[in-house]
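FW: tagging you since you asked about this chain on Friday. Here's the raw sequence from the shared folder, copied in full. Didn't touch anything.
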Amino acid sequence: MTTLPNRSHDRQCLLAIGVMLLAWSAPLHAEAGLFSLPRLTPEEILPSRSDFLSQKTLLGDWGGLRPWLDQYGVSFTLNQTSDYVGNTRGGIRQGFVYDGLLDLELDIDLNKALGWQGGKIHFTGYGIQGQDLSSQYIGSVLTTTNVESSPSIPKVGEFWLEQKLLDNRLGIRAGLLEADRYFIISPTANVFVNSTFGFPDSWEVNMPGSGPGYPNATPGLLASYDFNDDWKITASVMNGTPNGPETASSQYGTKLPVGNGTLSWLEGAFTPEWSLGNQVLPGYYKLGGWYNSYTINNVTLDDTGRTFDNPINSSYRGQYSVYGLVDQALWREANSTTQGLNAFARVTYSPQTERNLVTWYFDTGLAYIGLFDGRPEDIIGLGFAWAKFTPYLNGQIAAQNAQAGTQTPMATAESMVELTYQAPISPWLTLQPFFQLAINPGGKAPMPNNPNQAISSATVVGLRANVAF
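HL: got it, structure written out here
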């Protein structure tokens, strides 16, 4: 590549490219590796191979653009996730749909770019595609895939400035934030396709505006401090809802809602490495909680899948939830630090029954990396999730049934089972077939065309493809 004559001219060109990237993705905005969706297991590239299938991304170094930008601290990833998924039995109706996500992650190392030590800028752009199987075909609270969202439009995701201090132990971020990138993250659970294994869907249905998770970022401030290799604390304050006073998703994610209460987070993490013989077994143990000072409506005013002739027109100040997480490697194959069996379990508790549609939530699962010879990076996973609906809801359903002579089904827990297999075909292409069983969708919510009949359990199959450009 030809070297430009001077760094001043370089910076001008760099700025122009940065503006073009942001302009292309500014309208972009999509629950699952610890960067945003899709979250995949990192792959290694054999240095002796340089053919098409072994290069890290489909487009390689983009004609020299990537290494040139890297000189000035600019890096980016561009991933396309495509799902073909369908409900084959039960639910509201049967059929297959496509959903997808084009995900741009852009980072600027300000030390390289400007000599600003410890500074970094991050931008995320989402291109949401396709239909929602969960709402249109199943009626479930536990969303089938972690990329489906409505409407299918480009949206801005995260956009923040970070400063590292105290030998990089303290990190402070300010800007547009998504809580599902920082809190209650289970590395093992990230292999699953259902969105509830990322940002729990119990919170999505409880929190105003579905909470600050994909694809809705909200203004906020986040700080994290690493005491040592094992202990870390993360805290954040955000706007109480990502949508402001509006009930619909903010168009394109370009609005900056403020003054709608304060959503405060606190999480402590213990990440030891246990020794068992000659094996090293990493673990993740987390406790946390959040409090939202924004106004919360009575559950009868929310979208519960049930229609109330006389909803309780009440609102309340404040809402909170507490949670815990365990993620532990159980066994490692000989001479490997990654291949083996991992397990996780998470629980959330939101006790305010009149303002939380889901009070208790639990998920758990197993994932084995490299189960088959010759496939050391493949992951097979089996997961289970359970969401308990508030008993307060049944009191209101029973009262309406008695008054109107209807037979609307009583709400019960919704649960879901997922079996998935993630197979890297090359460093830039991953295929992932999956199977899900949605049990009691919507907590036995009634059929849209028959309020006296509960939606039956649904059987879901799908195939996910992820391409890294």
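FW: Confidence is low (pLDDT under 50) at residues 1-49.
HL: agreed, and The chain has one domain: 7-468.
FW: great, closing this out.
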